[in-house]
Structures are given as structure tokens and as C-alpha cells.
Recover the amino acids of this structure.
């Protein structure tokens, strides 16, 4: 188990290197002169030249690449060209906000889908199962920007129960978390259901019943533990979707998160911030994948590297 | 509480399990298939009863019924499964299949081993944990003691280095070892009845012999009755005291193994005997096969189920079902060649 974790940690090095290099190449392939962008359209040529020197844009590409790598390794993401603050100071509070939103939405989705999926599998082909299926299909087919607007209209405008947007009190959390979580919950429910139906049909379930194990434990211990293998992978992927989806949700609900920062920074051509936000997103992805792999090995003894 | 009455069959002191007119139906889209048809037989204490028959004859479903594990779309349509538990007689057919009472019997008084050792153990729990789980369910001992007992059981079924193996997961073990572990799990609570549903079918021949040896050894040690389900007559010969030959959900012939093997009375049993290759005797003899296929349980008519394949078929065979009637004491047969008792007549009387 420990060997496996170390192995996976070592794998982060090449993944991170490829990612950072790709980002570097991407931002150098974007048409336009970054120094000109920073200085503004009507800036004098001397200023543009000064910015070029200050940021090292006049250096050959491989030197720039090397300097960039060193800076990233030191955790220096540069300075925002828009607010002139260090990127890390701009990005970090947003990371916290997005982590709260995505984390709560994921928690909501996981709890709901495990409950509904298990119930659905236990009542396979029964009306209970069919109504869960209808619920989850509707959920999957409704994009966040539709369900979000409907929810805002109904709960905020019509009933006046919840705030429309922003992030001040706990009430502000409810709509974005549920809107973002419901879509994931619908996706996960389908998967949990089919994995549980599959697991409940296996031979070892009959063995467990023949031992005298209570039906509740047959479902939640013997079957669920086996069904979890594919489900955990899906949860990991789902967190990626949730982070991606948070861009839309944050825009709809005016949530001061990383997704909206990224959209804003692209609109203001604040390349260092865009770059920094993408790097943080990527780091979260890599961390989640690592956690999923470790969980996977913990749940399934067959894939431990021992 | 289930019924607790003393009657002839199960009332006898040595009787352990008695099936009375047990019928199991499966609902299919084409109609109701009666997979087990008014089956009656008894298993005594310490006795090994071999149930033989080809695929689909209802032998495994009978075993599941005794465990209370008949799954939808199947259901017990009628009949009784009387089991003597201590001083009382319980009708398993009437127990709630998910209730506490049947769960107290399962794995404890009646346990079961299965055909596929590769898939019958849960891949995510260690061997030791899975055996200890069965012990903890039925005995009031600590986790630690249960784990220790699990190691002892692994030792008892001849698994080398039992303490290490208890920590292993199913995928670390070979098929034969897994079946031994299954047997250890089944025997861990000293059951009075062990149901073995084709326990050696999926194993290769040498491993098969080892597992049969082990079961014979444990049978003496634990004094459990065994319901041994197989389609292999050779296995029956080495394991069983009594044989019940099943065809289309009914017993067509029963008796002590030695008597039935020496003198099979039912044409189906005779056909099966002739299909066994022999090391001795005439080398040039071709192996006989039984013509035709088993009819679907949906197509069963009023007559004997074997009539369409029987070499000695008579008119009466297509009109009525023969009853299982004793022939000369220990052996019984359901065939009009030997008597004229029909099922209906025997039920009326």
C-alpha cells in the first residue's frame, strides 16, 4: 500500500512537467504580443520595450521556458497584469470559495446517489426503482444553466426564500450547491444503481445470505463494497466535472470562485491569472486522481501493489 | 413460531430434514414453470444423501429452498420443508426468507457450499474475515476469538500456514484452496446439515479427489448430514449412503447407493449407468446415451416426464404420472414397469 502511494506520488513529476510545458507553449502560441497587451494599445514604444525586458519576453524561448519552470517550482505564479497584485493573492481566496462550492456539491451528490442508487437496486424493476430512474434521467438531461435559472426564479424571485446570488450567509450556499450537486447526483445514481444491481447478482452475495448475514448488511457491506470500485472512479471524474461545471454555476449565482475568476481574467486578458488559475485547477485534478487511486487500492485488495 | 408437531417421518428420532410435497414455481413470460414438483424425501442425521440428475432437474433449486434462498421469479408454491432443530420441528417453507428465524438457521444449523469457488467468496474481504463473520453471526464470542477460530477451521480443512492464509484475499488462493476455505466457513458453526451444491464440478480431477476426501473426513469429525448434489455418479459412489435420482423436478428412484448401483430400476437411472465408461469389462462396448433432451418444465403433460425419452414407454406412461413406490423394502421407483400406482391414486389414498 505504501509502495503504491510512493509510486503514484513519483508519477506526479512527469505529469506536472508535461502540464506546465503545455501551458507555456499554449500561451506562447496565442497571437498577440503580451507586452503590448499589458501596456495597452496606445502605449509608447519605450514602455512596451521596458515591459518586455522586465518580464523577460526579449529572451530566447528556451531561456524563458527555463525561467518559467524555475518560477513555477518556487510557487511564483507571477503578477496580475490587471490588478498588479501577485497572482497567488488573487487566486487563493477564489480557490477556497470554489472548493467550498464543489466540495459541498460533491458531498450532496455522493450522499443522495448512494442512498437512491442502493434503494433502486434493492427494489430492482419495482415502481420505486422506476421512479428513481425517471428522476435521474430528468436530472441528467437538465443542464445547470437551465436548472439554475429555474431554481433562482422559483425560490428567489417567486417564493423569495433564498438570495439570488453572491456569497454572504449560509442561505447563499443552498441554491448553487444543490443546483450543481443535483446534476452530479443524477449521473451518480444511474451508476450506483447499475453497479449495485451487478454486485447483488454475484455468487458471493448468495454465500453471504447462506451464512445468515442480514439483508441490510448483505446490501451495504458485501454488495456496496464491491460496487464501490467503479463508483469511486466515477466520483473522482465527477469532481472534475463539478469543478468544470462550477464555471457555469459561479457565473449564474455570482459566486466569487475560481471559475468566474478564470472567465473574468480571460475577458481582461490577464494572462498570468488565467495561467495561475489553470495551474491550480490542474493541481486539484492531480490531487483528486491520486486520492482516487489510493482509495481504489484500499477498497479493492486485488490492485494493491504488494 | 413455526409449527412444531410430531409426525411419522420427521418425528422419528434420527430424522433431520423432511421435504413433503414441495413444489417450487418459476414465473416466466411463457407461463409458470414447475421446477420442483411435489417432491418428498427425508434426510437422516449423519447420513449423506446424493441427489443426482441432469441440469435443470430441480436439484439446486431444492437446495436453495431448504436454505430459504429461492430467489424471484421463483417461489415455493406448496409443501413443507420440515427441519428438526433441537427439540422443535420448523417448517422452513413458512419462514420469512429475510426474517430472523431463517437467518439463525443459515450458516449455523444448515450451511451450504457452492459450485464455483472462484466467485463464491467476496473478493474484497480476507479469507479469515469471511469465516469469522459466519462465526460471529451465530456465536457470542469476541472478534479476536472468532478470528482465532477461523484459523483453526482453515487448519482443519488442510490449508497449510493457516494463519498467513487467513490474512490473504480470495484472489491469492487457487480454486481448490478456495473451496477448502468455503468448506471451512460452512463447517465453522458445526452445522447438522451441509448442503453441497456440485462442490467439485468446477475443480480438476486431482483436486476433486482431495476435496471429496476432506469432506468424508469432516463428515465423520463433525457428524453432519450432507445433501450432496451432483450430476456425477462416480462422486455419488464415493460419497453417499443414499441416492435420490431426480428428473424434471421429481424423484424417480431412491434407495441405498449400493442397491441402486447394482440394480437400477428406473429406465432413466439405467440409462445414466450405461453412460459411465468402465475400465474393466468389454472394451469394444459403445457408451450408451439417453436419446432426446430434457423437456422444458413448461411442456410437461399429464404423463411421466421421462416418457418421451424412455425406451420402454407404454400407453399408460403418457396418461398418468407414476408414484414413487417402494420395491422390495429399501429401494423405491416411480415407473409403471414396476407397479401401477399413479400419483393421483397415492395422493387420494
Amino acid at each position: 500500500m505504501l509502495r503504491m502511494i510512493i509510486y503514484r506520488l513519483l508519477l506526479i513529476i512527469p505529469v506536472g512537467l508535461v502540464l506546465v510545458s503545455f501551458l507555456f507553449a499554449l500561451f506562447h502560441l496565442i497571437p498577440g504580443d503580451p507586452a503590448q497587451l499589458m501596456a495597452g494599445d496606445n502605449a509608447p514604444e519605450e514602455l512596451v520595450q521596458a515591459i518586455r525586458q522586465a518580464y523577460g519576453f526579449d529572451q530566447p524561448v528556451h531561456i524563458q521556458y527555463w525561467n518559467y519552470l524555475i518560477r513555477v517550482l518556487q510557487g511564483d505564479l507571477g503578477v496580475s497584469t490587471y490588478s498588479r497584485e501577485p497572482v497567488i493573492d488573487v487566486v487563493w481566496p477564489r480557490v477556497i470559495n470554489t472548493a467550498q462550492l464543489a466540495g459541498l456539491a460533491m458531498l450532496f451528490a455522493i450522499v443522495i446517489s448512494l442512498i437512491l442508487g442502493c434503494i433502486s437496486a434493492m427494489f430492482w424493476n419495482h415502481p420505486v426503482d422506476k421512479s428513481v430512474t425517471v428522476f435521474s434521467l430528468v436530472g441528467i438531461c437538465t443542464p445547470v444553466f437551465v436548472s439554475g435559472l429555474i431554481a433562482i426564479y422559483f425560490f428567489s424571485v417567486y417564493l423569495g426564500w433564498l438570495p439570488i446570488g453572491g456569497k454572504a450567509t449560509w442561505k447563499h450556499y443552498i441554491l448553487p450547491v444543490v443546483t450543481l450537486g443535483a446534476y452530479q447526483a443524477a449521473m451518480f445514481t444511474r451508476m450506483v444503481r447499475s453497479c449495485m444491481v451487478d454486485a447483488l447478482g454475484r455468487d458471493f452475495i448468495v454465500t453471504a445470505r447462506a451464512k445468515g448475514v442480514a439483508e441490510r448488511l448483505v446490501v451495504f457491506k458485501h454488495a456496496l463494497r464491491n460496487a464501490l470500485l467503479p463508483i469511486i472512479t466515477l466520483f473522482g471524474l465527477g469532481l472534475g466535472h463539478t469543478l468544470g461545471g462550477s464555471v457555469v454555476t459561479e457565473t449564474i449565482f455570482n459566486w466569487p470562485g475560481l471559475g468566474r475568476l478564470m472567465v473574468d481574467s480571460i475577458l481582461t486578458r490577464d494572462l498570468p491569472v488565467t495561467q495561475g488559475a489553470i495551474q491550480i485547477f490542474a493541481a486539484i485534478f492531480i490531487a483528486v486522481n491520486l486520492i482516487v487511486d489510493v482509495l481504489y487500492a484500499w477498497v479493492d485488495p486485488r490492485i494493491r501493489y504488494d | 413460531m413455526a409449527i412444531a408437531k410430531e409426525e411419522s417421518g420427521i418425528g422419528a428420532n434420527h430424522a433431520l430434514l423432511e421435504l413433503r410435497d414441495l413444489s417450487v414455481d418459476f414465473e416466466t413470460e411463457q407461463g409458470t414453470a414447475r421446477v420442483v414438483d411435489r417432491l418428498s424425501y427425508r434426510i437422516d442425521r449423519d447420513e449423506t444423501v446424493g441427489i443426482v440428475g441432469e441440469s435443470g432437474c430441480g436439484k439446486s433449486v431444492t437446495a436453495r429452498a431448504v436454505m430459504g434462498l429461492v430467489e424471484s421469479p421463483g417461489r415455493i408454491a406448496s409443501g413443507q420443508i420440515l427441519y428438526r432443530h433441537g427439540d422443535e420441528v420448523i417448517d422452513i417453507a413458512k419462514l420469512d426468507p429475510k426474517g430472523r428465524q431463517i437467518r439463525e438457521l443459515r450458516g449455523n444449523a444448515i450451511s451450504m457450499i457452492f459450485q464455483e469457488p472462484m466467485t463464491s467468496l467476496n473478493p474484497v474481504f480476507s479469507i479469515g474475515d469471511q469465516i469469522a463473520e459466519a462465526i460471529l453471526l451465530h456465536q457470542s464470542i469476541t472478534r479476536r476469538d472468532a478470528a482465532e477460530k477461523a484459523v483453526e477451521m482453515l487448519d482443519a480443512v488442510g490449508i497449510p500456514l493457516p494463519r498467513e492464509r487467513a490474512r490473504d484475499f480470495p484472489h491469492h488462493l487457487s480454486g481448490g484452496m478456495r473451496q477448502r476455505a468455503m468448506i471451512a466457513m460452512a463447517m465453522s458453526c458445526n452445522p447438522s446439515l451441509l448442503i453441497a451444491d456440485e462442490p467439485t464440478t468446477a475443480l480438476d480431477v486431482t483436486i476433486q479427489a482431495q476435496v471429496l476426501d476432506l469432506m468424508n473426513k469432516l463428515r465423520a469429525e463433525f457428524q453432519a448430514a450432507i445433501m450432496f448434489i451432483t450430476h456425477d455418479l462416480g462422486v455419488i459412489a464415493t460419497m453417499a449412503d443414499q441416492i435420490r435420482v431426480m428428473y424434471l423436478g421429481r424423484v424417480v428412484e431412491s434407495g441405498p447407493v449400493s442397491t441402486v448401483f447394482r440394480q437400477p430400476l428406473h429406465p432413466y437411472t439405467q440409462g445414466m449407468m450405461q453412460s459411465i465408461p468402465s475400465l474393466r469389462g468389454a472394451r469394444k462396448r459403445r457408451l450408451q446415451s439417453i436419446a432426446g433432451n430434457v423437456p422444458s418444465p413448461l411442456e410437461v403433460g399429464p404423463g411421466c416426464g421421462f416418457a418421451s425419452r424412455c425406451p420402454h414407454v407404454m400407453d399408460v406412461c403418457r396418461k398418468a404420472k407414476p408414484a414413487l413406490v417402494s420395491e422390495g423394502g429399501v429401494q423405491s421407483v416411480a415407473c409403471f414397469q414396476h407397479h401401477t400406482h399413479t400419483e393421483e391414486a397415492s395422493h387420494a389414498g
